[in-house]
Amino acid sequence: MGQESTHIPAQEKYTLREQGMSAVSQSSALFGIVCAQGAQLRKHIDATLGSGNLREAVRLPPGEDLFEWLAVNTVDFFNQVNLLFGTLTEFCTPENCPTMSAGPKYEYRWADGVQIKKPLEVSAPKYVEYLMDWIEGQLDDESIFPQKLGAPFPLNFRDVVRTIFKRLFRVYAHIYHSHFQKIVSLKEEAHLNTCFKHFILFTHEFSLIDKKELAPLQELIESIFVPY
Ligand SMILES: [Zn+2]
């Protein structure tokens, strides 16, 4: 088998703030953007998700601002991954998962390019902690994710969002490759699949993740697009 390792900075830290899985849209309550427009967009997301039409749910609603739409969804997807991974914290331990792998061919090392420049080989839970902390830092930074209505987004906003999605994908890749049986035994399989499908349809709609990054779950992703 080939070797491919991708070095990236990321992180995550979080405790499970909510037990159990429920509607995909439920995560939106966890990390609030206090912005009327954001709230309205979120209502739109909830309504379209409620209808079960994921392909429709990812589309930019007519007349809405693209960056605002990306921002609201970025928060939602972050919360979803947070919840999903949170259900695995007792299983995804440094002992069980000494490296952040996605199957035998892919291993990720952490660097954020700022505080950690040389990629670190860390356990999967440590990697996810770094990753989620890093994302939370981006979401909390008002110069990147403005919370005031009408405040401008930075010129590089799309690049930041792409990096966030690329990193969130790695958590899915690790969950599917290392913890899928546990997910099945927890009866979270359907929820995981729905979250992932929504995530992939969204990133596809706005070209947020390069194809080569998706390789660890390529077959699964192809199955999502078959019905198209
Ligand atoms: Zn793990």
From TrEMBL:
Name of the protein:
MOB kinase activator-like 1A
Gene3D superfamilies assigned to the protein according to its UniProt record, in alphabetical order: MOB kinase activator
